[in-house]
Amino acid sequence: MKKERLYEKLENYKRATSRLYEATTLQIMDDIVYDGVIQRFEFTFELSWKLMKDFLEYTGLTELRSPRGAIREAFAYGLIDDGDQWIDMMIDRNKTSHLYDEEEARAVYEKIKHHYAGLLIAFGNQMEQELKTMR
Questions:
Q1: Which residues are catalytically annotated?
Q2: CA gyration radius for the chain?
Q3: Residue 17 burial (CB < 10 Å; 0-12/13-18/19+)?
Q4: What pLDDT is stored for residue 104 in this prediction?
């Protein structure tokens, strides 16, 4: 993969994080907003681990096939600060595919709003710094 392609993926990712953040700031609290935030979170999380994977492969790491492996290596590399919170985010992301309980969906929504959106934005900022300093 070329560095230019990583920049494109980063720009797509940053747009997704911006849209997620925008959704978390809405003052309207109803099921449609909760569903929309969760859906944007799912999409943004998928982009995040794939961007981690592509970046790490660009630097020479191979055989990253899962979100857990990408998160583990991204933490070791210094792309993310809190590997445990990212693993928790991955677990919640996996739960959202099977959420039928309104109470649990709202709990995940609160985590997205108060924790996960910030982690996703911080990762995008760190990736931007990494790409600027790379050859």
A1: 93, 98
A2: 15
A3: buried
A4: 87
Cβ-in-10-Å burial (0-12, 13-18, 19+) of 51 comes to buried
Give the 3-state DSSP-derived string for the chain, with helices as H, strands as E and coil as C.
CCHHHHHHHHHHHHHHHHHHHHHHCCCCCCHHHHHHHHHHHHHHHHHHHHHHHHHHHHCCCCCCCCHHHHHHHHHHHCCCCCHHHHHHHHHHHHHHCCCCCHHHHHHHHHHHHHHHHHHHHHHHHHHHHHHHHCC
What are 2's two structure tokens? 């070329």
Task: Identify the CA nearest to 122 among candidates 33, 6, 20, 4.
Answer: 20
pLDDT at position 69 over 80: yes
4-47 per-position pLDDT tens digit: 999 999 999 999 999 999 999 998 888 889 999 999 999 999 99
Say how far apart CA 56 and CA 128 lie, in whole Å. Answer: 14
Query: What class does CATH assign to 3-133?
Result: mainly alpha
